Amino acid sequence: MSASPARRIRRHGGARGTGHAPRGRGLAGDEDGSTLLLTLGYALLALALILVCANATSMYLAQKRLDALADAAALAGADGFEIELRGDDPIATLRDDEVREQAESVVVVAGGGAALVAAGTPDGASARVTVADRWHPVLLSPFVPDGVELTATATSRTALN
Question: What is the per-residue DSSP string for 96-152?
């Protein structure tokens, strides 16, 4: 009990040459490098997430462009009507071949690889058009399929009925 406080600390903290490590240092040596592995793992996860999000955004925009093309083709198809008189009333009538011709001209002018799948009139007063295109990812990624078939269908009625 006559030992000074400085000596007591040194005795419990590990003296030089005794082979005892100071408290708290024994566990730190076992975890060397684990931070680097975690950082690398999170960086790879972030990169995969960025690739998937970029490709998903690209596919969403491609679908929206295809929807707009189908809308434009259906609107043009609805303009391919003929006016008939039934009694004293003029009636606009659509025919399948006229709808297809008008819709096909819009798809050809738009370009971009989209194809007209179907165009016609289900009731003689509205035009229904279906277009298709194939989407390919903008960034190469093992998490995204190589290509996806996209389709869009739109219907437009004539304004005179």
Answer: HHHHHHHHHHHHHHH-TT-EEEEEE-SSSSEEEEEEEEEE--SS--TTS-S-EEEEE
Of 71, 118, 114, which Cα lies nearest the Cα of 99? Answer: 118
What are the pLDDT digits (tens) for 88-125?
888 888 999 999 999 999 999 998 889 999 999 999 88
| 93 touches 82 (CB < 8 A) | yes
Contact in structure between 135 and 147 (CB atoms under 8 Å): yes
Q: What are phi and psi of 84, to 5 degrees?
A: -120, 150
Whether the Cβ atoms of residue 127 and residue 94 lie closer than 8 Å to each other: yes
β-pairing, 89-94 with 148-157?
unpaired
pLDDT at site 26:
55
Identity of the residue numbered 128? R
